[in-house]
Amino acid sequence: MSQATEAGQVAPARLPPTVDTGAIAWLRKNLFSSVGNSLTTIVLAGLLVWLAVWFIDWALLKATFQAESGQACVGTGGACWALINDKLRLIFFGSFPYEEQWRPLLAILAMIAMLVLSCDRRMWNWRLAIVWAIGSFVTFLLMFGQIHIPVTLIFVVALLAGAGGYLLRRATAPDMERIAWIVLMALGALYLVLRVAGVIRGAAIPVAPFEYVETGLWGGLPVTMILATYGLAAAFPYGILLALGRRSNLPLIRALCVGFIELIRGVPLISLLIMASFLLPLFLPPGVSFDKFLRAQVAVILFAGAYIAEVVRGGLQSLPKGQFEAADAMGLNYAQKTAFIVLPQALRVVIPPLINTFIGFFKDTTLVLVIGIFDFLNTANAALVDPKWAGFPGEVYLFAAFVYFCFCYSMSRYSKYLERELNKGTQR
Amino acid sequence: MAVRNLNSAPAVIELEQVNKWFGQFHVLTDINLLVKQSEKIVICGPSGSGKSTLIRCINRLEEHQAGTIAVRVDGQRIELTNDVKNIEAIRKEVGMVFQSFNLFPHLTILDNLTLAPIWVKKMPKKEAEAIAMSLLERVRIPEQALKYPGQLSGGQQQRVAIARALCMRPQIMLFDEPTSALDPEMVKEVLDVMIELANEGMTMLVVTHEMGFARSVADRVIFMDFGEIVEQAPPAEFFANPRNERTRLFLSQILHH
Ligand SMILES: Nc1ncnc2c1ncn2[C@@H]1O[C@H](COP(=O)(O)OP(=O)(O)OP(=O)(O)O)[C@@H](O)[C@H]1O
Ligand SMILES: [Mg+2]
Question: What's the pLDDT at B257?
Answer without folding.
Answer: 57
